[in-house]
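Lab manual, section 2.4: Encoding a predicted structure.

Procedure: take the sequence of the chain (810 residues), apply the prediction step described in section 2.3, and record the output as structure tokens. A sample record is shown.
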Amino acid sequence: MKVVNLKQAILQAWKERWSDYQWAINMKKFFPKGATWDILNLAEALLEQAMIGPSPNPLILSYLKYAISSQMVSYSSVLTAISKFDDFSRDLCVQALLDIMDMFCDRLSCHGKAEECIGLCRALLSALHWLLRCTAASAERLREGLEAGTPAAGEKQLAMCLLRLEKTLSSTKNRALLHIAKLEEASLHTSQGLGQGGTRANQPTASWTAIEHSLLKLGEILASLSNPQLRSQAEQCGTLIRSIPTMLAVHSEQLHKTGYPTVHAVVLLEGTMNLTGETQPLVEQLMMVKRMQHIPTPLFVLEIWKACFVGLIESPEGTEELKWTAFTFLKIPQVLVKLKKYCHGDKDFTEDVSCAFEFLLKLTPLLDKADQRCNCDCTKFLLQECSKQGLLSEASVTNLMAKRAADREHAPQLKSGENANIQPNPGLILRAEPTVTNILKTMDADHSKSPEGLLGVLGHMLSGKSLDLLLAAAAATGKLKSFARKFINLNEFTTHGNEELAKAASVRALLFDISFLMLCHVAQTYGSEVILSESSTGAQVPFFETWMQTCMPEEGKILNPDHPCFWPDSTKVESLVALLNNSSEMKLVQMKWHEACLSISAAILEILNAWENGVLAFESIQKITDNIKGKVCSLAVCAVAWLVAHVRMLGLDEREKSLQMIRQLAGPLYSENTLQFYNERVVIMSSILEHMCADVLQQTATQIKFPSTGVDTMPYWNLLPPKRPIKEVLTDIFAKVLEKGWVDSRSIHIFDTLLHMGGVYWFCNNLIKELLKETRKEHTLRAVELLYSIFCLDMQQASRLVCPEFLFLP
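Recorded output:
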């Protein structure tokens, strides 16, 4: 077929139902090279044919979308063509045009001569005028619909128009293009007034005066509407339009280099989520970033310290604060010692570290905030620790301490009454580190020779925040796995009791209970992999490892309440049920605690069935739960572990009694006839149960009040806002991170949750889409740096999906 004109070519494509890419190929055959598609008005011709009927022609619209995506037509020609459509009563056609604008309005650009760039500005001005007219027409229809009693007629279209208007105007770049169009219009009028030129062929029909008139008309119509959300949205758009003429008068904040966000994020990620990790992988990762971005060593070390202080300041009170303190004052100096071996240069590494501290001392607000948070001179502790590790000379330490002391004289201080009884965490952590070594030596001794002495040591560990201090110090120095192994051996030692007296039996019960609770706490705080031993063929797996792997609820781990691990020998279950129901308190002598822990789930099921069938009254249930938690808290932990798995399998109307039993087990027993260190053990038990029950309580919309420890035991749990699509959450959080220029601890946890919820492909794909929205080089480079640091959450999987060139961009 010999095509005469563009219209015939489009109609031929429609009649023969060509696909979009077939259409593009044939169009290039029909029309030889020479005139561009914009000169032929391809976009206008396609829109004219697509909008003939009451609804748009989807096939011809697909041709236009393909032409836009393949850059056959310029954005300016499409915007100009859209602005010529004026039948706003056809809702479907208007919606299709708005959708087309959505394709590119957030990334407007053009290639070619300066005249074409000016043409884009004029086209955007025409499109803005069209959007305002469309919005005013929709508002008028809504007002008429309200008077006629059919408000839905125009409300949907008005909301769509306002949304596109807001999206277009929210871009500073788009407002700048509109400002250029306004200046061009003023310049043209001036030249005409001076007789220096005529009208231009491509001059838009819209002018800034027409924009102002349309805005005024829209305001008058919306004033009569009662919908506050739509009125507020329109007012925001009006404010943005009115701000365009004054853009040059307003100082625009430039994008400054705020440091090295990749280094910052890698350190923050390690301190927040991987305190127990070995130092060597962290050192290698940091060195790779240093080489990729050509970071000078003093600035590199400075960025590490900045990240540490930021993490320390923003860490939630409690365990997370102690973990960050241990990371900053114990682990990072060890990391710098290993970095010293890699940094071979003209200057000595100690001089680079000293130079980094000189830079750090200039960040007075950051150091003051850290000192105020920790109630001490953090820089002093850090300098002393670096001096011990050979990273600084004595002269440098003395000089730097003197400078910081002078600055601290002008720093804001807490009132003496507020900080008199607060012991600084950095000092406590540094003292806890040698204590960990001493405890490990104590645990190596024969437990059977002096169990009372060992119990005294463990009891001291339970007081206050001693346990969390010791665990944080052990984690930061790589001793936590050894620490956990010693307590597993102790727990295994206490599972059997031969001929023993009542006192020895109570000591053994306490050693079993404290070691069990400590191990549960370690698993929940630092991950169950810290507990697991190296697999060796033929070796017997300790009781606690077996129980933790099969019976302990963890995040992302769904347990089967009918699993064989919950159903031991029936005779042992019957004897345990009888003991709990008939005795006034739990017996201790020759009690096999590991068997009791494994039998408690089946015993609880029998008791629960008896209660539901009316065989047992609530008073009997109270007596049984008091027996369970009265002597050893570990039985209550095992019972709740099974109840959590059991509740997940029940219907909505079947959960009441199981949840009530969890509530009974969670509270402390107010009795004088309890074993030693009961209150301290209950605090740890409550924290363990709160972690275990968090998911199931949220799913069942149940509230259980656990004994308060004064701090939030789960600060990073349930961070996602309810009833919001996860893609929206990902987009919003990345936009905030990009605006700040660095990733904070809370954002890291949200990204980690989204990664596990959406999967690696979804996560990487949507973040790369956010990166591709950037149009300025400096913003794109910052986004790449931040994306690299976010992908460190799972670099192994991300590297398979994202091209290697991206991951190693400088």
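Check your result against the sample. Confidence is low (pLDDT under 50) at residues 196-205, 252-256.
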